[in-house]
Amino acid sequence: MTVHTPSQSSSLDDWLCYIEGVHPSTIEMGLERVKRVAEQTQILNTSSKIILIGGTNGKGTTARCLESILLAQGYRVGTYASPHLIHYNERVRINGKALSDQDHIDAFYMLDTGRGDTQLTFFEYGTLGALAIFKRYNVDFILLEVGLGGRFDATNIVTPYASVITTIDLDHKEYLGDTRELVGYDKAGIFRPNTVAIVGDLDIPHTVTDYGQAINADMVLANRDFNHSVTLEGFKWQYQNYHYEFATPTIPIQNVSTALTLLAKLALLPAQEVITSCLASLTVEGRFQCLSDTPKVYTDVAHNPESARYLRQKMIQLKSQGFKIHVLIAMLADKDKASVINEVSGVVDIWSCASLQGPRAEQAENLRALLPLQATCYSDISSALDNIVPMQPSDTALIIFGSFVTVAQAIEYWQK
């Protein structure tokens, strides 16, 4: 079959369809092909300082925290994140703002003409495209979220100014292994010799520190070198001579603590009042995002056990305010669904399940079979919300979660 190659005047949708189909696999581990194309197109010839951000959960919120505080000091910042919720453009930000379609089209066109006969996956195109855009805009800092693992992820072709691991838990077990030690070893692959490496996980597997010591990375570790503690009105963060206290942010405190430590280590931490202002205005789409106050509706991208544990704490807070918890769950079939459900089941009063669409989608009936209580099944998110929301009592909070796809559909439903 002949594949039609888009041009610079083609639409972004045309390009996304093209790069999705040009490689036979969705994921192909290894860096050789990506490095080759990066060298051929010279996109790594940049003076920008690159911060690699890996971890099972918390990459997006950590990056958003770093972005906000760096921007507040006048730096130019490029941020690369995945996946997106609604529009592809969400994946690349310059100074906190998404870019035009044409910026992405120009980057993809340059890559496609420069790659020769080297095949790239969708994620590899996206990563190289983001790096090309950051080079063009000549940003001071690049915040690069690692996609899968670390060692063989496309982002790991760069020479980082610093590396961060937020948390380590089980996800993508078919690629990264089925123990935290194996996952941690893979994620530690983003460390470099004599380069700052911040680890925010509160129970760091020995494989991470063993690897860091073996290559002489400049490691700064949670619960050894820095820590945080929850207070009645917020949290305290401590690292070296820094002893700061802040109000409770909208993102996980652990990720704020990790971000602040990185900035302090790199001598990029501003005055406390600047940080306070940044944290007060910090929001991240899809992370316990409030869609409605009346009725009370939240959505969250939690899709693995660790993120479900954090979501459980948010549910407990709602229950302490007198709310019952109604969960609408929709997940992908290749996730650890039973463990995710087990993490939150003790605080859920009412369950509903919805099917997703696509090759990785899980059906509502299969989710219902894993639940401890009776549940109503729906064919999709939209029909579920059509039925649930009009009948939702004022004393009940609806939590819609299970995947990025689930959150995207919930947000789109509310926007309509």
UniProtKB/TrEMBL annotation:
Residues 286-403 form the Mur ligase C-terminal domain. One of its GO terms (biological process) is folic acid biosynthetic process. Pfam families: Mur_ligase_C (PF02875), Mur_ligase_M (PF08245). GO terms for molecular function: ATP binding; dihydrofolate synthase activity; metal ion binding; tetrahydrofolylpolyglutamate synthase activity. Pathway: Cofactor biosynthesis; tetrahydrofolate biosynthesis; 7,8-dihydrofolate from 2-amino-4-hydroxy-6-hydroxymethyl-7,8-dihydropteridine diphosphate and 4-aminobenzoate: step 2/2; Cofactor biosynthesis; tetrahydrofolylpolyglutamate biosynthesis. Residues 53-221 form the Mur ligase central domain. Keywords: ATP-binding, Folate biosynthesis, Ligase, Magnesium, Metal-binding, Nucleotide-binding. This is Dihydrofolate synthase/folylpolyglutamate synthase. It comes from Pseudoalteromonas holothuriae. The gene is folC.
